[in-house]
Write a structure and sequence with these properties.
This protein has 289 residues and is an alpha/beta fold. The protein has a single domain, classed as P-loop containing nucleotide triphosphate hydrolases (Rossmann fold, 3-Layer(aba) Sandwich), CATH 3.40.50. Helices cover 31% and strands 23% of the residues. The chain is built from 11 helices and 10 strands. The strands form 2 sheets. It has a 6-stranded mixed sheet, with helices on both faces. A 4-stranded antiparallel sheet has the order 2-1-4-5, covered by helices on one side. Strand 1 and strand 2 form a beta hairpin. It is globular.
Amino acid sequence: MNVTGMARGSLDASEPAAEAAPRGATTSDDDDSVAAGSAPNKMTAVGLYALYGSSEAIKGIDLPIRDKRVTAIIGPSGCGKSTFVRCLNRMHEVIPGASVRGNVLLDGNDIYAADVDPVRVRRYVGMVFQKPNPFPTMSIQDNVLAGLRLNRIRINDVSERVEKVLRQAALWDEVKDILDRAGTSLSGGQQQRLCIARTLAMEPEVILMDEPCSALDPIATARIEELIHELGNDYTIAIVTHNMQQAARVSHYTAFFYMGELIEYNETDTLFTQPTQTRTEEYITGRFG
C-alpha cells in the first residue's frame, strides 16, 4: 500500500504499534508444514474495542488478517463479527454514537491515525454487504463505475476496466450484451457479483465480505464461494459468515468470536478438527449458537 496515497499527510510507519498474538492462536509463521502456508499479515487488529455509546461490542481484539488468504469470522448472532469487519475500513464510526479504541494496521500503518482520511482507507479496503445493493437508477456498467465516479477517480479506458472486473467477478459472459440494463434487473446472485465487481473496480488490496451469501439460494451461493476461492489468489479477504460449512469451504484461517471477544484463531482445518478452546468445540459441534 502506498501510504502517501492513503493519508492526508505522510504517515510515519517507522514505529508501528506492536502486533500482539491473538488469543487462542496456535498457528506459527515458523511452521512450514501448515496447510494454508505461511503468509505475512496484511492487516492486524491490536487491542481493538468498538463501542455503541458506552456499550462494548468488541473487546480488545488482537487478530491478523493474512495477505492473499481468506479469513473467516464465525460466531453466534450478536457476537461482534460484523462490527469487527466494519472497523477494518472505518465504517463503524459513521454510525451515530459509535466509536473505536485501539489500532488497525494496514501494511504496518494505523488506519486510525489522526492524519488518515477514512474515505481513502475505504478505497484500499473495500466492503461487500450482506444484501446485494446495486444502485437502482444505474445501468450494470454505471454500477461497476459508481465508486470510481463518486471518488472522482479517472481511468484511461472505461470499457477495459468494466470488462476486467466483470470477468473477475465471473459475470462478464452473462451481462456483456446487456450492460445498459438496470443493475436491479439481474438475479440476486448476479446482483451480488455485480457489487463485488463494483468493489474490484476500485482496485482494493483488501476485500471485506459481511455474510455475502445469506440472502442467496444454494446455486448462487456456490458461485460466490467459487469466486471467493479465485479472488483469494490476488486479494486479502475477510468474510463474516454464520455458516460454518461455508467457512470450512472457503477460508484458510478462521476466527471464532463470542460475546465480543476473540475466543480462538487458527488455520481453518485445525480449528474445525482440533479446537483448543472448549467454547469453540461447543459452538462448532452445535451445542450452542
